[in-house]
Specification:
By secondary structure, this protein is α/β, with parallel strands linked by helices. The protein is built from 14 helices and 13 strands. Helices cover 45% and strands 16% of the residues. A 7-stranded mixed beta sheet has the order 2-10-9-8-5-3-4, with helices on both faces. Helix 4 links the parallel strand 3 and strand 4. The protein starts with a strand and ends with a helix.
């Protein structure tokens, strides 16, 4: 049976990436590796839309989040954290771990932070040094209007550092690091970058780099001063994940060939088609502000998640994600993040349709597939040749 991955991380791997990672291993203190790093860094700047440095880290995305916290802030600093899901909560836990004072905004799961909420919190905090938020919340399938929020922060709180978890948004949603005035943005290899887990990246503004020099937090492996000191030499302070970085380099070449705007449009097209397909099956969306990286939907009350999940995997070779936290067993999450095409959206909805029918849910055969195909056809017909 062919297995297909529809989880929002890890995501499917393109054949080109697999072939590149299968090439003979090279040593990281060589000109050959430095040439790869130089090319990779320029591609990362293109991806983040920045002229500043993008630091690679051998870690998961959480490592890049930790690096952001310990390098940009000092113990006792006040920061605003936005908790609208499991990964927004992580910003709060990281700040607390390192003695930083988080003033947490609790946002109901499935709803998006509004600029007014953040403005009120910033005005109410004493000397807020930073804002830590999530662009696309993976646990809920919710996206915020980062452009509007960044504009408010830059205009009204110019000295406050804006730090963004872009782990499921970079390479899927529009993000313009320099133009929007973001100070730190992190992502991981296993999401939009279509590579196995194990490498993360942090883009840094000039304001952030100045803050790094002033931070009194203890740090070693995640000391961005060390990484920045050797970045211009296309080097790393510690042994890097060589094979994974080669894979990311290849994935970024593929993305560059497609074009950023085309990538964002593809994710929007697939998101719309998937949601139309789920709606036709009778499923309700979980998020009030859906992210184009993934779609979360409520499970029907009559459907047991473990049974549906097992049917999808064993009968159809399809793996989707379930809910997290209080929503475990209550929602499902379908990815359209990274290496997917139009027919993948047809496939996942077709499998879900059949699995729901097998579970006893009264879905009409063909309704979901038809809605996906119709959505994709309508979008295709409106394109400019």
């Amino acid at each position: 049976m062919k297995h297909r991955l529809f989880t929002p991380g890890p995501t499917p791997l393109p054949e080109r990436v697999l072939r590149r990672m299968g090439s003979p291993l090279i040593h990281h203190r060589t000109d050959e590796f430095r040439r790869t790093m130089d090319h990779l860094h320029h591609r990362l700047q293109w991806l983040f839309d920045t002229s500043g440095p993008v630091v690679p880290l051998t870690s998961s995305g959480t490592g890049a989040m930790e690096a952001t916290v310990v390098n940009l802030f000092s113990p006792g600093d006040c920061v605003i954290t936005v908790n609208g899901g499991k990964f927004g909560e992580r910003w709060t836990r990281l700040a607390e771990t390192f003695g930083i004072n988080p003033q947490e905004i609790l946002v109901p799961w499935g709803t998006a932070l509004q600029p007014e909420q953040l403005r009120e919190a910033l005005h109410g905090a004493k000397d807020p040094r930073g804002v830590l938020l999530t662009h696309s919340e993976t646990s809920t399938g919710t996206a915020i209007d980062l452009k509007a929020i960044a504009a408010m922060v830059r205009k009204e709180f110019p000295g406050t550092l804006l730090c963004v978890d872009g782990i499921t948004s970079v390479g899927a949603l529009e993000l313009r690091f320099d133009a929007w005035g973001i100070d730190a943005c992190v992502t991981g290899s296993q999401k939009g970058l279509m590579t196995p887990p194990g490498v993360a990246f942090v883009a840094l503004s000039e304001r952030a780099r100045k803050a790094i020099e002033l931070s009194t937090s203890r740090r070693m492996y995640f000391d961005l001063r060390r990484a920045l000191a050797v970045l211009n030499s296309n080097d790393t302070p510690w042994t890097p994940a060589i094979t994974l970085l080669q894979g990311v380099d290849e994935a970024l070449d593929m993305m560059y060939e497609e074009g950023l705007e085309n990538i964002w449009a593809r994710h929007a097209r697939h998101a719309k088609a998937a949601r139309n397909g789920l709606a036709a099956l009778g499923l309700k969306l979980f998020s009030q502000a859906p992210s184009n990286a993934l779609t979360a939907a409520w499970l029907p009350e009559s459907v047991v998640w473990k049974e549906l999940h097992q049917t999808l995997q064993t009968r159809f070779g399809i793996t989707v994600a379930g809910g997290q936290g209080d929503y475990a067993g209550k929602i499902l999450r379908i990815s359209h993040l990274g290496y997917y095409d139009d027919l993948d959206m047809v496939t996942v909805v077709a499998a879900l349709e059949r699995a729901l029918i097998l579970s006893g849910f009264p879905a009409t055969p063909g309704e979901g597939i038809s809605a996906v195909q119709k959505s994709l056809s309508e979008i295709e017909n409106t394109r400019t040749p």
